Automatic annotation (TrEMBL):
Protein keywords: Coiled coil, WD repeat
Coiled coil segments of this chain: 779-813, 862-900, 959-1084, 1164-1198
WD repeats: 417-458, 666-707
Protein known as: WD repeat-containing protein 65
Organism of derivation: Rotaria sordida
Pfam families for the chain: WD40
InterPro entries assigned: CFA-57, Quinoprotein_ADH-like_sf, WD40/YVTN_repeat-like_dom_sf, WD40_repeat_dom_sf, WD40_rpt
Amino acid sequence: MTTLNLASPVHLQIQTIFGVRSQLDSCLFFCDEHTVIYPAGNQFILANVETKGQRIFRCIELEHIDCIIVHSNAAIIAIVASGMNPDKENTTISFYDLHTTIGKRKRMFELRDTSMTITSMAFSHDAKHLAILDCGNREYTLSLWLWQKSRLAASIKLGQTEGVTVLSQVLFHPSDNNLLSIIGRRFCRFIRHLDGNLRIQSSSAKLDQYDFISHAWYDSNRFIAGTSNGHVCVLFNGDVQTEIDVVEFRERSIPPIQRAVSINSSLGKSISRSGFYPNQQENLDTLRSTGEEVTSISVVNKGFFCLVGGKRLCLFSKIADSWDFAKAREYVIPSNEIGTARSSTISYLSSSQILHDKQQQQQPLNNTHSMWKVVVSPKEEHVLVLTNKQQIYSVSDMAKDQSAESKEPFLLELIFNSYHQLSIRGLDIAIQKPLFISSGDDHTVRLWNYETNTIEQMKIYNEPVYAITMHPSGHQIVVAFASKVSLMNVLIDGFATVKEYPIHAAHQVKFSNGGHLFAVIDANIIQIMSPVYLKVIHRLNHGQTVKKILWTKNDLALYSQSSNYFVIWDLENQKKIFELKPTYRLDGGFIADREDKIVYLASDDGFIRAFHNGQLNHEAQLPQDDKPSCLEIYPSNGALLCGTHRGSIYVLKTPLAKILTGIFHYLAHSARITQIVVAFHEALIISCCEDGILMLWETHIKSSTKSEDWTSVVLHNKARFIHLSQTIEALQIEEHELKRNQEYRLHQMETTYLADLQRRTDMSVNERRHHENLIEHQIIEKENEQKDFEIKHADLQEKYENEKQRIEEEDRENLGRELQKEGDLIRLAQKIMEDNESRLKSTIEASENEIRDIAEYFTGKIRETENELTALRKKTRQALESNEIEKKNLETDVDDEQLKIKLEFEMERRHLIETNAKLQKQFKETHEYQAHILNVKQAEQEATAQTVKKRIQDNVLRVQGMSEEISSLKNEINERKQTITEKVDRINDLELKNQELEKFQYVLKYKIDELTRLIKPREQEIERMRNQLLEMASEREKKENELSRNRFHNVEQKRTLHAVDTQVEHERQKRKEYDNAMRRIKNDILVHFADINDPKRVKNAVAYLYEKHVQNDNVKNIYITADVSGGLSEEILAQDRQRLFLERTTSDLKRKLNSDLHTTKANRMRIMNENALLLQELNNLRQELKIIRGRTQDYEIAKKTFDERGVHSIDALVQTLNADAGNYVVRHRNSELVKEVQKNQQEILRLRQHLSRVQAGYSPSSMDTNIDDETANISILKLV
C-alpha cells in the first residue's frame, strides 16, 4: 500500500476509506456478483455490497489517471495514465489482476509517446482484445490492441471523409472479437477486423435525425442506443427497428434537438471532460444540454436500465412476441440528497426553515445532483448507480411492480455510508468515545463511529461549515459557519444548539485538551471562550489574519500562526511569550511536541523547520518539490506526519535532517490534504482532503527496545497459593464494597450540589426577571429618545444631502472644464502633428533629402511633445489628488475649499496658457533652424521615418488611457463619499453604546450592595458553628482518654490470665502418675472440641465427656474416696477446685471485656456521627460563604472589564450576570471531589496493609482503635 521502508518510525496501513474520487464520472464497476470496485484517492476499493467490507490496493497510475475499464468475468482492470514519465508526455496503460493476487500488475506498455484524449474503451467478451477510441486534431483514431502481448493489432482513422463529426462510444460484439460497433452524432456503423485491418461496413440507414450518445448490445443481432433528445432506439443491422420515447407527455411534432455536450462513455470520462482541442469546437457549436439525454444503458434479462437526463433511472421490460419495450419502473434520487444511510441517524432542518431559505436563495446542492452511471452485477442481483456528488445508490424492491395508479417513482437507497460531496474543511476526534466528526463545503456535519465504520449522526445546514471541533468527552461540538459560531450538544437524535456567537467566517475553532475552554479565530483576533459559562474569557490580538491555532498540553498557553507571523501566548497574563517573523510564508501549518519544547513550522518553500527556545535547531525539505499543507505529531515517538498539496503523506523521523533518509512517503489522496488527526490510543490516524474523502489508517510502531525477561514466581506449596488466592478475593470484595460506598457518597454529594444549584438558579432567574422588567422600561424610554433623534437626524440628513448635491455639481463643472482644457491640448498636439506631416510630405515632393531632414526634426519635436504630454498628465493627476483632498475637507469648511479650488483652477489655466505660448514660440524659432539641419541628417532619417508613425499611434493610445484613468478617479471619489457616510453612522452607534454602558454601571452597583447585605448573617452563623465544633473536639478528647484507660485495664487482665496459665502448666507437670488417664481425656477433647465456634457442637461434646468421665462410678470413687490407693489425694482435689475457679474468673473477664468493647464502640460511633454532621454543616456554610465572596469578586471584575469584553447590549449584560452566579461553585466542585476520592483511596490502602499484616502473622499496628480492640479480643480467646 505504500513505499514502505523497514526503518520507518510509524508504519501506516489503510483500514477504511469513506468516499469516491470525484474527477472520474464512470469509475464504478462490478468485479463479481457481490464485489464492486471504484477509485478513492490514489487507491482502488473492492467493496462487498453484502458485508460492506473493503479490500484496498494501491495504484501509482491513479495520480495521473485518464480513464479506467473493468472486465467482470476475467477480473481485469485497465488503467490509462498520461504524464507518468516526467521527462516526456507519454500515455501508458496498465492491467491489474482483481481475482487471485489483488493489485498485482500483469502488464504495462506505452500507447503513444504523446498525450492523447480518449473518448471510449471496451474489452472483448474473452478479455483478449482491447479497443480504444481517441480524439485529436479534427479526427478520431480507433485502435485494436492484443494487450496480453502488448501489440497493436490494427487501427483506423475516422474523420469527416467517413461522415464522422462527433463519436461517443465503441463496444465489442458479445460473441465475436472481430466485430465492433461505434456510435456518434448521426453516425452508427459496424467495424470488422480482418487480415490486420479495420474496415467500416457500409450501411444504407438514414440516421440524420439521431444523435447517439450511449449504447449496449441486447443480443447477437441487436443493440439498444440512447440519444441526446430522450429517445431509445433498438437497432438491427444498423437500422432503427423500434424507437422509444422515454420522456413522458411530450408532443411528437417536436423536432429532434441537437446533441448535448455531456456524454458518458464506457470509460471514465465524458466529452465534456475529455478536453477537445480548440479547432474541434466548430463541430460542437450547436450542442446544448436538454436534460433529456440517455447517458447510460445497461442490459438485463428481458429489458434494460437507462439514465434519462441524469435525474431518472428507468427500467424497460420487453413486450412478448415483439421488439417493443414498456417502462416497468422508475427511480429517482431522494429529495434530501442523502437517502437512508445504514446504522445512522440523520437530521434535517424544519420545513418552515427550508421554505424560508428557498424563498431567499436557491440551493445549488439540490439542483445539481445527477446520476452518472448505472452498473448491473453479472447475475443481476444488484444494480448500483454512481452520482456526481460521489454517492453510490442501489436499486431496491426489484420484485415489487409499480402500480398503474401510483405514478410516484421509487427512491434509490445508499448502499454504503453517505459520503462528503465537496471539500472537507473540519475534522476532529473524541477521546472518551470511538467517535470523530467532519464538516465541509457540502453544508453537512457528520458524526462517525470508527469502530463500526458508520455514520452516527448527520445534519444539513443552509451555509457552508468552515471549521469544527469536538469536546474530549464527545458530548459537545463547536461549529463555525459562514455567519456564526455555534456551541452544540451531541444528542441521541441530533445536535442541539446551546449558544450562538456572531463571529463571521471563523476558519478554525479548537477545544482545549481539558475541554474547559475553546478558541475561535475571528480575523486577526483569537477569542477564548468557556463552554460552561458561555462567555468570552480572553481576546488576543494577533495583528494579522490568523490561519491556525493550537493549545499546549497544560492549556496554559496558545500557539497562533498567520502567513508570516508566529506567536506563543501566555493566557494568564495575555502576553506574548515568543514571536517569530520569518522571511518565508508559513502556509503549511505547525505542530508542537508532547513536552511543548520544540515547535515545527512548515513553509511554502517545502521546508519543515524545528525551533527550540526560539532558535532554529533542525530543518528538512520534502522531496520532489512537494509543499506541505498540514502537520501532525505522533505522541509516543515524536514522528512527524506531513500532508501535502499533492495528497501524499510523509512520515519524518525526529530530529529532522537535511538528507532524505528519515523521510518516508505514502500515497494517500488525490487532492490537497486539509487535516490529519491522531487518536488518543495512537492506533488510528484519520486524514481528509479537498476531494471529500476520509481515510482511516492503522498504525504500527517500530520500536528499538527489547522486552524485559521477567523472573517467574516460585510458589512453595499449594496451601500457600490457595491462602493467597482467598486473601486476594477477600481484599477484592472489600475493595468493591469501599468503591460502592465511595460512589454512594459521591452520588449523595452530587445530589446535594444539584439541589443547591437549582435553588440558586431559581433565585438568579427571579433576579433576572426583575432586571428584565427594569431593562424593558429603559428600552421604552430609549425608543422614545431614538424617535426624537431620528427626526432630528432626518432633518440634518436632508440639509447634508442638499449641500452635498450642490458641492458635487460644482465639482462636476470643474472637472468638465478641466477635461475640456485637456481635450484642447490634445487637439492642439494633434494639429501640430498634422502640420508636421503636411510639411514632411511637401519636403518629400521637393527633395528626398529635405524629407529626411524634416522627419528628423519632427521626431525630435514629437519627443518634446511627448514629454510635455507626460508633464500635463502628471499635473492633471496632481490636480485630481488635490481635488480629492479638498472633497474630504468639504464637510468642515466648504466655503474656503471652494475658493481654494477656484484659485487652483485659475492658476492651472494660466500655467497652461503660458506653456502653450512658449511652445508656439519655440516651434517658430526652431523651425527655421531645423530647416538647415535637415539637409545634413537626410541619410539618418530614412530608417527612423517608419518609427515616427508608430510612436504617433502610441501617443493616441496613451491619450485614450488617460481618459480611462479619469473615469476610474471619478469612481474612487464616489467610493470615498460612501466611506464618509459609514463613519458618521459608526460614530452614532458608539454614542448609543456609551449610554447603555452607563445604565449597566447602575445595575452593577445595585447587585454589589445586595450581595454585601447577604454576607453578614452568614459570617455570624459560621462563627457559631466553629465554636460548636471546638466543644465537640474537647468532648472527643475526653472519650479517647477514657478508651486509653480501658485499654490499659484490659492489658492488666491479660497479664493475670497469662500468670494463671503458667501456674496451671506447672501443676500439670507434677501429675506424672496420671498421664494415661489425662491422655485419654485429651484425646477425647481433641476429637470433640475441634471446632469451638459451633456452640451446639460444643454443648454436645461437654455432655458426652460429662457422661463418660464424671457419671462413671469408678471415676466417682477416684474423686470421693479418701484412700490413697483407691482415689486421688487432697492435693489433686485442690488443683481441681483451683482450675474451676480460674475458669469462672476467665469467663467473667470475657463477658466484662465484651461489654466494655460494645460500649466503647457505640460511644465512638456516636461521636463520629456527630462530628460528621457538624463538619458537613460547617463545610456547607463555608462553601456558601466562598460562593458569595466569589460572586462579589466576579461582579467587581465584570464591572471593570465590560469595556474590554465588548459587552454593549442589555441582553449580554443580563446573560453575563446570571452566568457568573455559579462560577465559584463550579470552579471549586472538582477540587473538593478530588480530595474526597483521595481520602477514600488512602483509607482503602490502609485497610489493605492491615489485612496483609494480619494474614502474615504480624501484630497489627495501632492505626485504629477499633482494630486494636478486636485483635485484643482474638488474643484473649486464644489464651482461653
